[in-house]
Structures are given as structure tokens and as C-alpha cells.
Specification:
heterodimer; A: mainly alpha; Four Helix Bundle (Hemerythrin (Met), subunit A); 6 helices; B: mainly alpha; Cytochrome C Oxidase, Chain A; two-stranded antiparallel sheet; 60% helix; globular; binds protoporphyrin IX containing FE; binds copper (II) ion
Chain lengths: 192, 617
């Protein structure tokens, strides 16, 4: 009877967390493929250059702040400061939504300059990569939504391992899409 | 009982098979076993999901192979009247001026494409790795189920969905996709290119995107389970080779399938949003598509083969794992060179990411770059040869039981050698100038991957059938199945090497107008007859399989093969959770067969004796 418990104690990482990381690896591979394709195609010439919309700076700030808020929010939950936890959780979600809005406005900026999705592979890649990234953010917002629903319940104030784990899983994913965006943003800047 | 409760909590608390004990009356506990629908259809028990993968895979195998028979009829007997197929195929059988019914040309390409897609992805990926990873990972590492049974179930249902979408596309007015299983643009992108490039292509892409999701959900689970849920004592180097193979397979899938997913997204964008990722300077029917410029179709090929080559190892590695296990058990000998086997699996895994451009020697990649890929491609032959050597050394001097499972394993080794050798020809970019896109390539990959992987799968089914259904398959029918399949496979693919060396191109509907190819009509007819024969022998298997589920000889011994691994420590027809009591603990490597005078075999659960050194180290 003890063997299962024993083997569980030795285990350093929860299987669900491990599974999440494995899933993130697959997302990394997807974006690696896209950015590599971008580099290869760009080297091929006939590449239309344009500036990134300024809105992307605002979206970058928004998502970094959002991650920060959620990080502190997690710390507050563990420290049983439930009010602070909830407030920062809502703030983080709000900033996440703001990120999506800024991305949308950024695309609108590009469209206003007549940089449409099929103008040149350079713009096609930009829309495809940022679009796929936003889809991943939307997924993150969905997950955060579930966390919000749980957080509003009274009994959620009691800190348990499984609640901590749930928060950790969702927030890890969120930090991931945040870092992914920073990578993409720098990638686009460097490539220009 | 406490530990079971904990574990079952982990399994979302469902299913109490060991109803002799009355532990907790958790309400949603019984939900998943309460009805036929829950316990079979939406089951989360890895053993049931394995059966779902297997039977769905078999369904697709029948369809995929039947398609190949249809296009083989056209190749072997272009003058035959096929109008008798009209009730089944309707408009796809055209009546020509002579009043003869022939396969429509577009449909020929659709059949080739569907055959490839179905066999490569649905049968040899989902049907093989899906079935055996699911069945064996938890049972052999000593876990009650996968890390996430829910994700596991979803993995099956995404596969199912992929199948439904592809199946529906068979009935489209314009026909299913017909641009080849590799879906190169522009055929996969421009609706005006062919009938199959219309709705059929969209549905093909959609289906494959669902399939990628299925592979990823499954793979994440397999990796997590192997690395995190092993029972006490099951160190990595005490894992059976099956588990090593499934682990590396899942890692390959996790790293390569997302890449082709991005490729598919780009194709979908090109199809629907007017982008030109992969299109440039295209003329269709004499008309220039001036608005579709700037892309590169070579880029697609890179993305595709970055998946495509690992994919062929995703197909073959599970078969290799199964064969290692089956050969060792049935020759009553430890696997030869356990660690060498592990490291060659790992080496194959790493190298498989460095060779993709050997599919593109003739696509216009830089010849100097080709040289690098030649080098890595030929290096893959080294770990492959190590494995072959070790299989043969395992049988050598063994006390071999010639049953269906071991025969198919030996057949696997034979096929893998034959096909591997032709790979070395193709791997040299200079030789490939002549061989590329000929029947030599077709022969190569059908032997080394198609037939070999099927053999691995058959070996696995015959060997673990009692584990799945508590009964045995019929041995006489199994042997008829083996010899029939073995012989007809060589009869089909042997001559194809010759055709290829004579320069006969693959993917041609008819050689009527090519004098130097039409001289092979008789050989083509011969191949078709052999293929039909091979198909009929699979009927023997299917009958045997379903008959044995209900009527096969009952399993009475918990460990009928005298194996050492954990799956044989669970009761016959074990319920969800696998072991009614505690999970067994592991004390030794999995290949203690005939190591000791007094004991024919020692199971992994038996503690090491005083001073005994664990094998494999
Ligand atoms: C010794 C090892 C091998 C070498 C050197 C090798 C080399 C090659 C090369 C160079 C080609 C491209 C031929 C062409 O299109 O002109 C090829 C095609 C192929 N190989 Fe191999 N191969 C090896 C083993 C394998 C194995 C183990 C598998 C599968 C399990 C496999 C599956 C395939 C498939 C599916 C294709 C054809 C894909 C297509 O064009 O439709 N090969 N091989
Ligand atoms: Cu390859």
C-alpha cells in the first residue's frame, strides 16, 4: 500500500503539470516552424517591408502587466489574501482582454495602410503568426474564465493542493503565451 | 485500500471493478461503468480505448486496402470491363467508346491519395501506436491508467472525427482529395487544378488537423504517463522495449506533428484567404494566376517532410518495440543487447529529424545541401542495423516457439532488412536521380514501412489478444494468415523494384502511350493478382479476430506465454484500474528468460536474490 504513495513522493513534478509542459513544447514547435518558414521565405527576396503597428507596443505592455498581475495574484492566493487574489485575478483577465483588443487595433492599422493579408508573404506571415498567437491567448482567457468562476465561490478561499495546482496550471499557460508573444514581437522587430 | 482510493481519485474517481470491497461511495464513481454506452463508447479505461483504436484502425485498413485493389485493377488489367463495379462506385466508373467500364482518371488519383492517407495516418499511426501505447503503457509500467484518461478518450474521439470527415469526403460530388498523401501545393491549394482540389482538399485538410490534435493529445499523455506514473522499482532501464519505443514515438509525434499543422494552416490560408505562401508563377489551363505570386512550394515540402520523415519512424518504432518483446518471449531468451536497443531507438529518434530533405533531392534543393542529408540518411542505417543484428541474435540459439506472433515478428525482421537495403540506394542523392518517383520508391517504403509495420501490428495482436479479450486467436488460421501474407507481400513488392529500376514512374494512371513502360503489362497484371491474393488472406485474419473475441479458446492461465512483464500480473479481463489490489512492485529488468537453471523465467515482480545482479546493466 505504501509503494504507490512512496513513488508519488519521489516524483518531483505533478503529472498534470508535466502534461502541460509537454503540450507547450508542441506549441513551441508550431511557432518555430512558422518563424523558420518566415526566415527562409524572407531570404528568398521579393519581400515587402513595412513597420509593425505601434499598437503592438501597447499590447506587449498589456500582456506583460497581465502576467505580472496574475503572478502576484497566485502568491496572494497561497498567502491566503483572498481579496487581493481576486482583485489581481480580475485585473489580469482584463489586461488579457486588452491585449486582444490591441492586437485587433494593430491589424486595423495595417489594413488602413492597405497592408492586407494577401498583399505579400510578409504580411501573410504577420497575420498568420499573430492570429494563431491570439487564438492561443483566447484559449488562455477561457481557462482564466474558469478560474474566475471558481474563485467567486466561497469555499475557494480554503487553500488546497488541488486548487493551487489548478491555478498554477492556468497561470503557467498564461505566462507561456505571454513569453511567446514577447518572442514573436522581438522576432518581428529583429527581422525588419 | 487507501492507495486505490487515491489513485481512483486521480482517475476522476470512476469505476469500481473490484466490487468485493466497499470503499467509498463517491457518487460519480459508478457513472462510467453504469451502462454499455459509458463503459464502451465513451470509456476512459485505457484498455477499452486501445480496443477502439484497434477496431477503428481495422475498419480503415479494410477500406484503404480495398482502394488499392481498385487502382491495382486499373494498372494490372486496363482492358478489363469494370462496369460491374458501377453499383458501388457509380459515376466513378466511366463507360468508354468501346462500351468498356473503366476507372475515371480523377478517381484513380483520388484512390491513390486516400489509400496513402488512410494507411499511413489512420491505420499505421492511430491503429498501431494508438492501440498498443494505450493497451501496454499503463499495464507494463504498473499504472492504473493514463495520466489523463479524459485526454486519452478525447484523443480517440478526435481520431474518430478525423475519420468521419475523411469518410464523408469520399461521397462529395467532386470527389475526395486527389493530390497525393503528401498534399503538395498547388494541387492541394487551387480548386481549378483538379476536381479533387475542390471541397475534397478542404475536407482532407480539416480531417488531418483533427488527426494532429488526436496525436498530440495521445502523445502528451503517453509521455507523461511513462515518465511520471511508473510503479515503484520501474526505473527507466527496467522498462520493456515496447515502452521505450512508445515513449520515443510519442516524443517524435509531439515535435513533428505541430510543424505540419502550421503547414496545413498555411495551405488553408492560401485556399481561402488569397494568400500565396506556397504559390508562385502558376499557370492553370494556359492561364497565368497573376495574383498568386511570391510563395514557394519548396517551403511546403520542407514543412511536410519535417513531419513526414519522423512520421515513418512514428509508424515503425512501435512495431519495433512489439517485435523485440515478442521475439524475446517466444524464443525464451533475453533480448540481445537491451541497452543497445534502447540507444538505437533514441538514435533513430534524433536522426529522424535530420534527414527530411532526402525526399527532396529531386525537388530543386541545393545539391550541396543534399550531401549533408545523404550523410545523415546513411547514418540512420547504423542504429537500424544494430537493431536487426540484435533481433537475429535474440532468436539465435533460442528455444523458438513458432506461433503466429513470433512468425509475424520474424517476418517483420525480414521485411525491414529488405526494405532497409533499398533505402540505402535511395539515400544516395545521385542514385536517387534515377529512382525518384519510380516504383522503386513505392517498393522501398511499402516493404520497409507498410508491410513491416503491419507485421508488427499483427504480431502484437496475436500476442496480446488474450490480454485484450481473455481468449486466444486460432493458431492454424494465424499461420495461414502469416504465410499467405508473407508470400503475397514479396510477390507484390518484389517485382516493383524491377519496374522502378527500369524507370517506370509511380502515380501513372496508364502506360498505354509509353512504349518502354507498356512492355511491363504482364508484370503489372501479376502484381495485381498477388495483391488480390494478399487482400484475401487478410479476410482470414478478420474472421479469426472477430470469431475469437466470442468463441476463441478461453485464457485460463494469467500468464499464458510465460512472459516476465507486468501486464500478465493483472487478472484476466481486468477492470478499470488494472489490479484489484496493490500495484505490483518491480525488482528486476523485463528479460529474465532462461537465465537460471532452475527457473525458466522470472517475472519482474520477483525480488532479486542475495547477490543477484539485475540483467541489462
Ligand atoms: C536505411 C534506412 C532508410 C533510408 C536510407 C531511406 C531512404 C529513403 C529515401 C532517400 C527516400 C526518398 C526516395 C524518393 O522519393 O526518391 C525514401 C522514401 C521513403 N521512405 Fe525510406 N529510407 C530508409 C528507411 C525507411 C523506413 C524505416 C521507413 C518507414 C518506416 C521509410 C519510409 C519511407 C517512405 C514512406 C518513403 C516514401 C514517401 C513518398 O514519397 O511517398 N524509409 N526513403
Ligand atoms: Cu524519409
Amino acid at each position: 500500500m505504501n509503494n504507490v504513495m512512496a513513488s508519488r513522493k519521489v516524483r518531483k513534478i505533478h503529472p498534470k503539470k508535466f502534461a502541460l509542459w509537454a503540450g507547450l513544447v508542441s506549441i513551441v514547435m508550431m511557432f518555430t516552424a512558422l518563424t523558420s518558414a518566415y526566415i527562409v521565405r524572407r531570404a528568398g527576396g521579393a519581400w515587402y517591408e513595412f513597420d509593425l503597428p505601434d499598437m503592438f507596443i501597447w499590447s506587449t505592455i498589456a500582456i506583460i502587466l497581465s502576467s505580472t498581475a496574475l503572478h502576484i495574484s497566485y502568491k496572494s492566493y497561497v498567502g491566503e489574501q483572498h481579496k487581493k487574489f481576486k482583485r489581481l485575478l480580475f485585473l489580469g483577465c482584463f489586461l488579457g482582454l486588452a491585449f486582444i483588443v490591441f492586437q485587433y487595433l494593430g491589424w486595423q492599422d495595417l489594413l488602413a495602410q492597405d497592408i492586407t493579408i494577401n498583399r505579400n508573404p510578409s504580411s501573410s506571415f504577420l497575420y498568420l503568426i499573430t492570429g494563431l498567437h491570439v487564438l492561443h491567448v483566447v484559449g488562455g482567457i477561457g481557462a482564466l474564465g474558469i478560474v474566475v468562476i471558481y474563485a467567486r465561490r466561497k469555499k475557494h478561499q480554503v487553500v488546497t493542493e488541488s486548487r493551487k495546482l489548478r491555478l498554477e496550471l492556468v497561470f503557467t499557460y498564461w505566462h507561456f503565451v505571454d513569453i511567446l508573444w514577447i518572442y514573436l514581437f522581438i522576432f518581428f522587430l529583429v527581422q525588419q | 485500500m487507501a492507495d486505490i482510493n487515491i489513485i481512483e481519485e486521480q482517475l476522476h474517481g470512476h469505476d469500481h471493478h473490484d466490487d468485493g470491497h466497499d470503499h467509498h461511495d463517491d457518487h460519480h464513481g459508478d457513472k462510467y461503468q453504469s451502462s454499455l454506452v459509458d463503459s464502451y463508447l465513451f470509456s476512459m479505461d485505457h484498455k477499452n480505448i486501445a480496443k477502439q483504436f484497434l477496431i477503428t484502425g481495422m475498419f480503415w485498413a479494410v477500406i484503404g486496402s480495398a482502394m488499392s485493389i481498385l487502382f491495382r485493377l486499373q494498372l494490372g488489367f486496363p482492358d478489363a470491363d469494370l462496369s460491374w463495379l458501377q453499383p458501388l462506385l457509380g459515376g466513378w466508373i466511366e463507360i468508354n467508346e468501346q462500351g468498356q467500364g473503366v476507372l475515371a482518371q480523377d478517381f484513380y488519383y483520388a484512390l491513390v491519395t486516400m489509400h496513402g492517407t488512410i494507411i499511413v495516418f489512420f491505420v499505421l499511426t492511430a491503429g498501431l501506436s494508438g492501440t498498443f501505447s494505450n493497451l501496454l503503457i499503463p499495464l507494463q509500467i504498473g499504472a492504473r491508467d493514463m495520466a489523463s484518461p479524459l485526454m486519452n478518450m478525447l484523443s480517440y474521439w478526435f481520431f474518430f472525427l478525423a475519420g468521419v470527415v475523411l469518410f464523408i469526403s469520399l461521397f462529395l460530388n467532386t470527389g475526395p482529395f486527389s493530390g497525393g498523401w503528401t498534399a503538395y501545393p498547388p494541387l492541394s491549394e487551387l480548386p481549378q487544378a483538379s476536381d479533387g482540389s475542390k471541397a475534397g482538399a478542404t475536407m482532407w485538410l480539416l480531417s488531418l488537423v483533427f488527426f494532429v490534435v488526436s496525436v498530440l493529445l495521445g502523445g502528451i499523455n503517453y509521455i507523461t504517463t511513462v515518465l511520471n506514473m511508473r510503479t515503484k522499482g520501474m526505473s527507466l532501464f527496467r522498462m520493456p522495449l515496447t515502452i521505450w519505443a512508445f515513449l520515443v514515438t510519442a516524443i517524435l509525434g509531439l515535435l513533428s506533428f505541430p510543424v505540419i499543422a502550421s503547414g496545413f494552416f498555411m495551405v488553408l490560408f492560401d485556399r481561402s484567404l488569397g494568400t500565396s505562401f506556397f504559390l508562385n508563377e502558376i499557370f492553370v489551363a494556359g492561364e497565368a494566376l497573376t495574383d498568386r505570386v511570391g510563395g514557394s512550394s519548396l517551403l511546403y515540402q520542407h514543412l511536410f517532410w519535417f513531419l513526414g520523415h519522423p512520421e515513418v519512424y512514428i509508424i515503425i518504432l512501435p512495431a519495433m518495440g512489439i517485435v523485440s518483446e515478442v521475439l524475446s518471449v517466444h524464443s525464451r531468451k533475453p533480448i540481445f543487447g537491451y541497452k543497445a536497443m534502447v540507444f538505437s531507438i533514441l538514435a533513430i529518434g534524433v536522426l529522424s529529424f535530420l534527414v527530411w530533405a532526402h525526399h527532396m533531392y529531386m525537388s530543386g534543393v541545393n545539391p550541396f545541401i543534399s550531401n549533408i542529408f545523404v550523410l545523415f540518411t546513411l547514418i540512420i542505417a547504423v542504429p537500424s542495423a544494430v537493431k536487426v543484428f540484435n533481433w537475429i541474435a535474440t532468436i539465435w540459439g533460442g528455444n523458438l516457439r513458432f506461433n503466429s506472433a513470433s512468425l509475424f515478428s520474424i517476418g517483420f525482421v525480414s521485411m525491414f532488412i529488405s526494405g532497409g537495403l533499398t533505402g540505402i540506394f535511395l539515400g544516395n542523392s545521385v542514385v536517387d536521380i534515377q529512382q525518384h518517383d519510380t516504383y522503386f520508391v513505392v517498393a522501398h517504403f511499402h516493404v520497409v514501412m507498410g508491410v513491416a509495420a503491419f507485421f508488427g501490428m499483427f504480431a502484437g495482436v496475436y500476442h496480446w489478444f488474450p490480454r485484450m479479450f481473455g481468449r486466444f486467436m486460432n493458431e492454424t488460421l494465424g499461420k495461414i494468415h502469416f504465410w499467405g501474407t508473407m508470400i503475397s507481400a514479396y510477390l507484390v513488392f518484389g517485382p516493383m523494384h524491377y519496374l522502378g529500376m527500369a524507370g517506370v514512374p509511380r502515380r501513372y494512371y496508364s502506360f498505354e502511350y509509353f512504349e518502354n513502360f507498356s512492355q511491363f503489362d504482364a508484370m503489372n497484371a501479376f502484381i495485381t493478382i498477388a495483391a488480390i491474393l494478399g487482400f484475401l488472406f487478410q479476410v482470414v485474419f478478420i474472421v479469426n479476430f472477430f470469431y475469437s473475441i466470442y468463441r476463441g479458446r478461453k485464457q485460463t492461465d494469467m500468464n499464458p506465454w510465460g512472459a516476465t512483464t507486468l501486464e500478465w500480473t493483472a487478472p484476466i479481463n481486468a477492470g478499470h484500474g488494472n489490479w484489484p489490489g496493490e500495484i505490483p512492485e518491480v525488482h528486476r529488468w523485463p528479460y529474465d528468460l532462461s537465465r537460471y537453471e532452475d527457473e525458466e523465467f522470472v517475472m519482474q515482480t520477483v525480488p532479486l536474490k542475495e547477490g543477484e545482479v539485475d540483467g541489462g546493466h
